[in-house]
User: What shape does this take?
Amino acid sequence: MSPIELRALIRTVPDFPQPGVQFRDITTLIGHGEGLRASVDQLAQRASDAGAQAIAGMEARGFIFGAAVAVQLGIGFIPIRKPGKLPIETIGVEYDLEYGTDRLEVDPGAVGERQNIVIVDDLIATGGTALAAVQLLRLAGAKVDHALFVIDLPDLGGSQKLRDGGVAVQTLMGFAGD
Assistant: This one.
């Protein structure tokens, strides 16, 4: 499927979660078999081109796309978790949200020293979660130079923040201006 056809599968929900926000809902994309397969195929090709040795995805929707890309490439998947979800000792990083902070954690044994890990997620907005994931994986010893997203909201600046942090960003589609 072409990028235009994939973009048409994204549902826009106006005024969610607050007035003036145009929420980009991937539920309609992941529920469309051909669209999901095409998205995963395109992400997997880009991850392969980046020399991915493993894929990392952030909870929760990054698990959907990231795990599928990892399976297609025949490489491992590293889940980046919310706090308290892993039953072992973890390493973590805190990061700022619009109103407060949050934390991401990973099993440090899941990451090989200088392993080339590509981040895959559904959407890049302000970039806070993705930047924290990069920081966390690098703290664990990984090389993280590439991040792939289905959707970019470029006006929110997240892609540029990642680029400024030394991470190449590729997306399948963007929704500018809203």
